[in-house]
Design brief:
The chain is mostly helical and about 325 residues long. The chain contains 13 helices and two strands. It has one domain. A two-stranded antiparallel ribbon has the order 1-2. Strand 1 and strand 2 form a beta hairpin. The longest helix has about 30 residues.
Length: about 325
């Protein structure tokens, strides 16, 4: 890593973190003023602690999306960072899925219910972006699957399209489901991005290293206001954007398989919902006290802080395991 990249990382991190921390109080006040607040579910046996969160400003994800992108572009203009294929596709995924989330949040806030975009509409928009990224990706890179540990590359042709489609749609939904407890999704993403930061460094791709550092700074700045008790939520704007981001990073770094392991907590959250819904449709009984999984533990009496710290620990262990496998 050369001196210019080190300077870019330092400058990008400091400016992004500072921008988010300084902007967040004004954003919170503005969202309060225009009444862009969270609308919690109103269903039988729902968590009382969450119902009390009604009215907490949402769409906070705008801060940690806009700040890293703007700062990275400024670094490119200052010739401290390259605007290459890797940066373009990652930024497009980050912003693109964020826009879908913004539309969803806007509908939720305006209509004052938790429905937002219809599932079919959201899936269609996510699918269009996944297809677009696949088409762009194949203009520059091969449709091969890297097998960690064995260091083997497997050409899978059109099946790579299926893989990319599942990665983007599943990961964006997974991060969306995980964003249900103060500080959970943002903190887990901070942890999950670290192995990919190392992979980008090892592969000598400075654009990805610098941009991940900017995103990490934005998330840490956001967490100052999202940790329990949260003063602001990221909304679908932030959660969908983070899913698209990490899927794009895994794709350009050829670490698609390790994404499943490193993002294991996100996967578990999604599976808990799939299992719960499928089992209930067949038996009218529930396996979990409540889904997604973090709500199950809340129902068992765990505090939000305990849920978050335990999930962070699991996320960190999976990130370390994924990192070790990726470097073998």
């Amino acid at each position: 890593m050369n001196l210019i990249t080190i300077i870019a990382i330092f400058v990008g991190f400091v400016i992004t973190y500072g921008a988010v921390v300084l902007a967040m109080p004004s954003l919170i006040d503005y969202l309060h003023e225009i009444k862009f607040g969270q609308t919690e579910r109103h269903e039988e046996n729902y968590l009382e602690s969450h119902i009390k969160k009604n009215g907490t400003p949402t769409m906070g994800g705008m801060a940690f999306i806009i700040a890293p992108i703007v700062v990275y572009i400024l670094l490119c203009l200052a010739r401290l960072a390259p605007m290459d294929f890797y940066a373009v596709i990652i930024i497009m995924a980050f912003a693109g899925y964020g826009i879908i989330g913004f539309i969803d949040d806007y509908i939720i806030v305006v209509k004052k219910d938790n429905a937002g975009l219809k599932p079919a509409q959201k899936f269609a928009l996510q699918s269009v972006l996944a297809i677009a990224f696949y088409m762009l990706y194949t203009q520059y890179m091969e449709t091969t699957l890297f097998i960690p540990v064995f260091k083997a590359t497997l050409p899978i042709g059109i099946l790579y399209f299926v893989l990319i489609f599942i990665m983007f749609t599943a990961e964006s939904n997974a991060t969306n489901l995980t964003d249900g407890v103060d500080g959970l999704c943002a903190g887990l993403m901070c942890i999950a991005l670290i192995p990919f930061l190392v992979f980008a460094y090892v592969q000598s791709i400075p654009s990805v290293v610098i941009f991940i550092c900017c995103v990490e700074a934005g998330l840490l700045g956001y967490l100052k206001f999202n940790k329990y008790p949260a003063k602001i939520f990221m909304g679908d704007t932030g959660s969908l954007a983070l899913g698209g981001l990490i899927a794009a990073i895994a794709m350009v770094l050829k670490q698609e398989i390790l994404l499943v392991l490193i993002g294991g907590v996100f996967v578990a959250e999604t599976l808990s919902v799939i299992i719960q819904v499928s089992y209930y449709k067949k038996t009218k009984k529930r396996i979990f006290l409540m889904a997604p999984l973090h709500h199950h533990f809340e129902k068992k009496g765990w505090s939000e802080v305990k849920v978050v710290t335990r999930f962070y620990l699991v996320g960190a262990l999976l990130a370390i395991l994924g990192l070790c496998l990726g470097l073998m």
